[in-house]
């Protein structure tokens, strides 16, 4: 007997996880992906001989969905854990950050300010229930903990350079989840522990693709779905550049802003909910250097001459032949700067990195590239989850979600894997 075919839109971690679970449960997933490769924001590229992600990723000890999948796929032995460090660029100096000693030694905060900041981080890490923070605005919540002066130094530019005019309308639950995740990924109060895969995310992507194709899944790359076909409140198929394809069930994991144009037959009240979700775009510059920038994996920045919230020296997590640094510029997609050529962002990055480490010269920049992602970060407003349509829409055979749906958790491979597998189980339960 032929297996039931189920369409999966998008081959990022969520879509691949949904397809994986469908295979395990005895179904045949048919995956449609607009890109020429799988992975979404985890997709890798050839960086002058180095296969590496376009956008940085790391793993925490709490990422059980990700770790369980590695075990199921037989690649758990490729996982490694590293003690990492964090820094803060402030007052033209790179200071240690991320542990109690660094906080006490930080130049720029009063003793009372340091105590209040430490208490906020401690209790956020220990807190388990986020419901009471759901309707609370994030900047107000932070200010109540640390005060206006500390907020201005430690948080203001981080928010402004990542969220721009959305800064005053963010959920405290979402911010809390970020603090908690990093706080829980530690050996102890003084040592941070993060993880990486040998070969990066490509190791997982390759294994998932091999598993899917070996078990009958169809993978259509470079074939975005242009329309999901709906008739009499039920799914009948999808339309691509190759024509129409019949399906009675469709799981969509494409970014929500694309849903109105791909699902035009949904009721207007539902489409308007998708349209109301705001997103931030990113121009992510990645630099390969002949010498390290610093000893830190993560560096927050507070500098009037740097329009970035921070940077990631990825090679201080995953050992590489050369130093590799990611520098993200977050911008509203409609912002004029988002359309500026790559060269402008690349030159900014060179200037910023040399300012942080004056020992760097032009010759130390072995390669520099820029990638863009229009819908990189959903804006999670207070009460965000209640504003989204249900995953299972009032259309028989249709389930729609993206990374927005595991709010208050931030975008993450592990969260996407868990949610994708759950989507598949929902689809096959009907």
Please outline what is shown here.
With 430 residues, the protein is of the alpha/beta class.
Write structural notes for this entry:
It is a single chain. With 430 residues, this protein is of the alpha/beta class. Among the domains are: 5-76 and 198-277 and 388-429, FAD/NAD(P)-binding domain (3-Layer(bba) Sandwich); 100-189, no CATH class. The chain has helices spanning 13-24, 64-73, 100-105, 111-126, 138-146, 148-154, 156-163, 172-184, 201-214, 259-262, 268-275, 342-356, 413-429; strands at residues 5-9, 28-33, 44-47, 50-53, 79-84, 86-90, 93-97, 186-188, 191-197, 218-221, 227-231, 234-240, 243-246, 250-252, 279-289, 298-302, 310-313, 323-332, 365-378, 398-400. The strands form 5 sheets. The chain has a 7-stranded mixed beta sheet with strand order 7-6-16-17-18-15-19. A 5-stranded parallel beta sheet has the order 10-2-1-14-20, covered by helices on one side. Strands 5-9-8 form a 3-stranded antiparallel beta sheet. Helix 1 runs parallel beside helix 9 (201-214), helix 4 (111-126) crosses helix 8 and helix 5 packs across helix 6 (148-154). It is globular. The protein starts with a strand and ends with a helix. The mean pLDDT is 95.
Q: Helix and strand layout, with pairings?
A:
Elements: E1 5-9, H1 13-24, E2 28-33, E3 44-47, E4 50-53, H2 64-73, E5 79-84, E6 86-90, E7 93-97, H3 100-105, H4 111-126, H5 138-146, H6 148-154, H7 156-163, H8 172-184, E8 186-188, E9 191-197, H9 201-214, E10 218-221, E11 227-231, E12 234-240, E13 243-246, E14 250-252, H10 259-262, H11 268-275, E15 279-289, E16 298-302, E17 310-313, E18 323-332, H12 342-356, E19 365-378, E20 398-400, H13 413-429
Helix pairs in contact: 1-9, 1-13, 2-13, 4-8, 5-6, 5-8
